[in-house]
Request: fold
Amino acid sequence: MAEKLISVSNLNVSFDGKAVLDDVTFDIESGDILAVIGPNGAGKTLLLKSILGLNKNYSGEVVWHQRPETSYVPQKINFDKDFPLTVKEFFLLEIGGRSSFWLPTPDIVGEIKKRLQEVKAAHLINERLGTLSQGEMQRVLIARSLLENPKLIFFDEPASGIDVGTEETVYNLLHELYLKNNLTMVLVSHELNIVYRFATKVICLNKNLICQGLPSEVLNPQTLHKIFGHHAGVYKHEHKEQGLGVSD
Reply:
């Protein structure tokens, strides 16, 4: 039986008297790929931030049974694209006191290259962040999250803003990393086909917890209607492996 890493119990978050998350309870277990789905404004990002301690404005409990090395990959980062920061320098900012920013040791540079190689992006090491495509930037963010050898990684829509083909590649890459590094992952995603294929568990949010369980058991037309409303329907993706999606 998998070990519990985190238990979320009766989590409530309100802003200006309005509930954003209402009585949410679930567990994250070692080895999970836990997908969090729901419409815009359902509280998905806020849930991740509450678990990670980045939001403390909640009632209820978030209990960490274990404290594995943990990383968080946000949906996007805001930076001045004209600022001449290279990918290597972006990594060195994360490494901080372990190395000189201006004169990093060969070992540190080798570690950066290794992480970039893991996401098939070693060729980007000297590129400026502002010149990267959205897909390339996502690979860099994923590689950066691996620096401290985490066992638990939170991803907030890791394929946001990129095309369907690149999206498929990003999720395949995450699954490879999950298997290779014996990871536990929590990811927010709007793409139900991907959730259906890769997630071991899913929780469905629309402020309160609509469903949780195996994707093959809980992702059905009735549940999608509860989550996304009367415009939601089910369609098939024309990929090699098919699954569920939402259409308006």
Observations:
- The chain has eight helices and eleven strands.
- The longest strand covers residues 4-15.
- Residues 234-248 have pLDDT under 50 and may be disordered.
